[in-house]
Write a structure and sequence with these properties.
With 428 residues, the chain is an alpha/beta fold. The chain has 2 domains: 11-209 and 412-426, Rossmann fold, CATH 3.40.50.11720; 221-409, Glycogen Phosphorylase B (Rossmann fold, 3-Layer(aba) Sandwich), CATH 3.40.50.2000. 45% of the residues lie in helices and 15% in strands. It contains 19 helices and 14 strands. The strands form 2 sheets. A 7-stranded parallel beta sheet has the order 3-2-1-4-5-6-7, sandwiched between helices. A 7-stranded parallel beta sheet has the order 10-11-9-8-12-13-14, sandwiched between helices. β13, α16 and β14 form a beta-alpha-beta unit. The relative contact order is 0.11.
């Protein structure tokens, strides 16, 4: 297997070299390019390296670090947190301000995740020399995993999810991934654990509570007087948030915006594309439908009734949910598995989703039975549910009370991860 691995990684490295010009011209990857290639310098040495792909995973990084206690009695525990996206980096920079000012003996540096080319990852791991690495969700990067193995860095994959399609792809190179297997996989469900076990070996897989429930617990409804967006909406304004809208469902959501504008003409709509590079396309779609819109970045005063606000600013979805009468969460009108519909609940808003939500099946179907989330089997049903909540919005305090009861027995994921990480750090 050793000779096969060496050959496979030589080919993998050559593929990264061939792709370099394309990567350098990619709009999303251009941000932080010097960190991704290590040409701008190397991150500092760290005891723990945490990788979270994008914004959602970086919030999980932040939550883990809130619970992590310094295992070293005579020095700080130094953490390197990396991400692949600009949004993730903005979250990690905020997390660093929080963690570094807390004086708990934990230091945090934020850095873009280096390109997975073996030569780059070997250089990064040799310099950072972490005792342990924590991978959040399902970030299976061969170059990173092999460099960790060569460096003697113990690897934990936590909050792990794996769908059947991903498993089938990985099994095409099962021998390779078995050699690169993390030391411990903490999966979100028995089904996920079975899939990870099939790939990596069942002896290294356990289950855990989802860290996102801890984030819900640490979140609280934002009062209007403290909301940074309060001046955008006059009190009593009907406000619908369409959050995390994906490219594959844009036409459906375009029609949903038009239907909302027609049936509730004074309602303000906050439209949040999942990826910022879709803003220009959304300008075209709204113009084609003849719908009035403004960019969030250009809106300083109260929004006129009947306007769609096209959100081109990061980090404001939670404050927007806190002002919303109701909310639709995207990734669910196309067969994509859904985006995080727990976020509106932390603000006392009952979310509406389409029929595709399997990425969040770990939440439990009883969340719909309890009325804490609503599902429509297509755009027309989603519209009806949104209009129903506009007509009779649930009381925020009552929703928050039900949410707390729902998650009470589902917390503890961050502490579970920290227990395993601390063990690896002090038993190097």
């Amino acid at each position: 297997m050793g000779a096969f691995l060496n050959t496979a990684f030589k080919v993998y490295d050559l593929a990264w070299r061939a792709a370099a010009p394309l990567l350098e011209n990619n709009k999303r990857l251009r941000q932080g390019l010097e960190q991704r290639t290590l040409e701008g310098g190397l991150p500092a040495r760290a005891d723990l390296w945490i990788q979270g792909a994008s914004g959602g995973e970086c919030y999980l990084t932040w939550e883990v670090l809130r619970h992590l206690e310094n295992p070293f009695p005579d020095r700080p525990c130094n953490v390197l947190a990396t991400t692949n996206t600009k949004q993730g980096m903005e979250i990690l920079e905020r997390a660093a301000e929080d963690i570094n000012s807390s004086r708990r003996g934990i230091t945090l540096q934020a850095h873009y995740f280096p390109f997975d080319a073996p030569r780059i990852m070997r250089k990064a791991l040799a310099h950072v020399a972490p005792r342990a690495a924590l991978i959040l969700e399902t970030e299976i990067w061969p170059g990173f995993l092999r460099a960790c193995k060569e460096q003697g860095t113990r690897i934990v994959l936590a909050n792990g999810r794996m769908n059947p399609r991903s498993l089938a792809g990985y099994l095409a190179a099962k021998g390779l991934f078995r050699e690169l297997a993390p030391d411990l996989v903490l999966a979100l469900s028995e089904r996920d654990a079975l899939r990870f076990g099939t790939l990596f070996g069942h002896d290294r897989v356990q289950t855990m509570p989802n860290i996102k429930f801890d984030r819900m617990n640490s979140s609280s409804a934002l009062a209007r007087k403290d909301n940074p967006l309060k001046d955008m909406l006059a009190p009593g304004t009907d406000f619908v948030v369409l959050g995390s809208v994906r490219r594959e469902e844009e036409r459906e959501v375009q029609q949903l915006v038009a239907d909302l504008h027609r049936t509730s003409p004074k309602t303000v709509i906050g439209l949040f594309p999942r990826h910022m590079e879709r803003i220009e396309r959304w300008k075209e779609l709204l113009d084609l439908a003849g719908l009035p819109w403004v960019l969030r970045s250009e809106q300083n005063d109260a929004v006129k009734p009947g306007t769609t606000v096209l959100w081109d600013a990061f980090g404001e979805m939670i404050p927007a949910y806190a002002l919303a009468s109701t909310a639709f969460v995207g990734g669910s009108l196309a067969p994509l598995g859904g985006q995080n519909f727990l976020e509106p609940l932390t603000c006392g808003v009952v979310p509406v989703v389409g029929p595709s939500w399997h990425n969040f099946s770990w939440v439990g179907g009883e969340i719909f039975d309890s009325g804490l989330a609503l599902m429509g089997n297509g755009r027309e049903e989603v519209l009806a549910l949104l209009l129903g909540q506009l007509a009779e919005p649930p009381a925020r305090k009552a929703v928050l009370s039900k949410v707390r009861a729902y998650i009470k027995q589902r917390r503890g994921g961050a502490k579970t991860v920290c227990k395993h990480i601390a063990h690896l750090l002090i038993n190097d």
